[in-house]
Specification:
heterodimer; A: five-stranded mixed sheet; globular; B: two-stranded antiparallel ribbon; about 60% helix
């Protein structure tokens, strides 16, 4: 397990965030870790699944940070998939 | 014996230009400090400016200005004017002093460098007056807040801010080291005086002076109006310097210097001046919106000057115009969210009436920004204050050092690898500025870099606040104790999907 700092934006939010994730975190977990800083703070929650986009690809929810090859300070975008 | 008219003696007494015999031009005017661009000495001697003030007149005029400003302060010292000011306006002036007092001191270095290494006697003469001006501006903007310390201890940040690692202070140091302390005479004449002083400080000082007078803060209005009269004079160093460069075939270099600093100035003034004008100034006393001030003081003026000088608008002009509609609103939201990291109490400025004003001045504001404030207001009404603060850092740009805000969906920051290190930039112009001279900027660590490098211990909010020099009593809170939130509509679930 290693901490990986990411630059993250939640779609429709206004600012890029520093979010610390684990290299074994799945994309579902990454999405939740990013959403924690946005949803119900500046954007309301929605009943929809969250997805992670990296390098212009939407990643599988089960894929881990390490499997996706996401390096420290990479940029990811999280969004509601609906 | 009759006195000569000034026009009969001024140029002769001022223009002490000569050819050196015992030293070389390079020894007297090292390129690192003068940056003459290979332009021969005599070509600089045509440099001229319109004010042609004598030292005697200068001292006389400045003494009168000082007497005027300090008499206003003395008169007001016996009143309750500060106590009666709007809390939002107090935020504007507490922020102002922390932002401007010490950079004025750095401007003293800049003017003095032009006063020694400028290539024409006329220029050095003007810069000497500029040096004295900037000493005055630093001292007076430390003296006035010092007199208010008993009423608001955070006026101490007029002096303190620049000596801390508060993130806004890092923004300012990065900018003013680039513009002033680490700059050469020619670049400074163009970047400090032509770009910043005839443009952005003019906007800030005259715009806020108008707002201050409307608000009833006669002291602040008088002070910054007085400062601006000096700026109007010594800012005249830029245009003649530009003319020499253009006449000597250095137009591209002149354009590059402008393009670099216009962008840097825009970003910094959007961060500090934009919120003061559109959110902190009481609604009833706003003379114009920030955008309207920008259109009046920046867009029109620079359009005219670029045309008159045969220069082009900066290459990113369209992007700049687009940012006029959204950037400072995003930055204000960020400032408010990070209010514990500020030395002033930001006024959210989003009561129902203020939101209507914002929508009228910036059509689309409600859909873009009102929805955030709606969610925030609901948290305030629920008593969920924790959710109105961030739990992580906002990523900042490795050039402007300002949080990276998004204009539209899915625009990522720009990541650039240089000598094995990844740099993050908010925009094409910030990336372009870095790439113009990577060695100049590459060693700097942003607040994010410092956090990740372990400079901030413990690596949490408490450690960050200590690192920034903010004790609990100094940390910002909402200027109105969030009274505005009670006016918000009850449901936020509609348009922020």
């Amino acid at each position: 397990m290693a901490t990986v700092p990411l630059q993250a934006v939640f779609r429709r939010d206004f600012v890029t965030l520093l979010v610390l994730v684990d290299d074994e975190d799945t994309m579902d977990v990454v999405a939740q870790k990013v959403a924690r800083h946005v949803i119900n703070r500046r954007l309301p929650a929605r009943n929809a699944r969250m997805r992670v986009r990296y390098n212009q690809q939407v990643l599988s929810p089960e894929q881990t940070v390490a499997q996706a090859g996401i390096l420290a300070m990479s940029f990811v975008e999280v969004f509601y998939d609906a | 014996m009759p006195k000569l008219e000034r026009s009969q003696w001024y140029d002769l007494s001022r223009d002490m230009n000569w050819s050196f015999k015992y030293v070389t031009e390079e020894e007297v005017f090292p390129e690192a400090l003068s940056h003459s661009h290979g332009i021969p000495a005599a070509a600089w001697w045509n440099w001229d400016e319109p004010y042609k003030i004598s030292y005697r007149d200068y001292v006389h005029n400045q003494a009168e200005k000082e007497a005027g400003v300090y008499s206003v302060r003395s008169a007001l010292a016996r009143s309750k004017f500060f106590e009666n000011l709007d809390p939002g306006w107090k935020a504007a002036i507490i922020a102002h002093y922390g932002v401007f007092a010490m950079p004025e001191y750095l401007a003293t270095f800049g003017e003095a460098r032009m006063g020694r290494f400028g290539r024409a006697a006329a220029w050095r003469n003007m810069a000497l007056f500029g040096t004295l001006d900037e000493i005055r501006h630093a001292q007076i903007q430390l003296s006035f807040p010092h007199a208010l310390l008993k009423k608001e201890p955070r006026f101490d940040w007029a002096h303190k801010a620049f000596h801390t690692n508060q993130w806004g202070a890092i923004v300012l140091r990065h900018l003013f080291d680039d513009m002033l302390t680490a700059n050469d005479a020619v670049s400074m004449a163009i970047q400090l005086t032509f770009v910043i002083e005839t443009g952005f400080t003019n906007l800030h000082f005259l715009g806020l002076a108008a707002d201050a007078m409307e608000t009833g803060d006669v002291e602040f209005s008088t002070l910054i109006s007085s400062i601006q009269t000096d700026e109007a004079r010594h800012a005249q160093q830029g245009e003649p310097t530009l003319r020499v460069l253009i006449q000597q075939g250095k137009k591209a270099e002149a354009q590059r210097l402008i393009d670099v600093m216009f962008w840097r100035g825009w970003r910094a003034f959007a961060l500090f001046t934009g919120p003061a004008m559109d959110y902190y100034t009481p609604l009833a006393h706003r003379r114009s919106s920030f955008k309207e001030f920008m259109l009046e003081w920046i867009i029109k003026q620079f359009n005219d000057q670029f045309r008159d000088l045969g220069l082009e608008r900066p290459w990113y002009w369209e992007l700049f115009l687009q940012e006029l509609d959204w950037l400072h609103h995003a930055l204000h939201l960020g400032l408010w969210f990070k209010r514990r990291t500020l030395w002033w109490n930001p006024d959210a400025g989003v009561s129902v009436a203020e939101r209507e004003w914002l929508e009228a001045k910036y059509p689309g504001w409600h859909d873009r920004f009102g929805t955030y404030w709606q969610t925030i207001a609901e948290n305030v009404r629920r008593g969920d204050v924790a959710h109105t603060h961030p739990e992580t850092l906002f990523v900042v740009c490795n050039m402007c050092q300002i949080p990276i805000c998004s204009p539209t969906v899915g625009v990522p920051p720009q990541l650039v690898t240089h000598n094995g290190r990844v740099y993050t930039f908010c925009s094409d112009p910030c990336r372009w500025i870095f790439e113009q001279n990577p060695a100049r900027y590459a060693g700097h660590l942003s607040i994010i870099d410092r956090f990740l490098a372990g400079h901030i211990q413990p690596p949490d909010l408490a450690g960050l606040l200590v690192y920034m020099g903010l004790s609990p009593d100094e940390q910002g809170t909402d200027a109105m104790n969030c009274a505005w939130a009670s006016e918000q509509p009850q449901s936020a679930a509609t348009s922020a999907a």
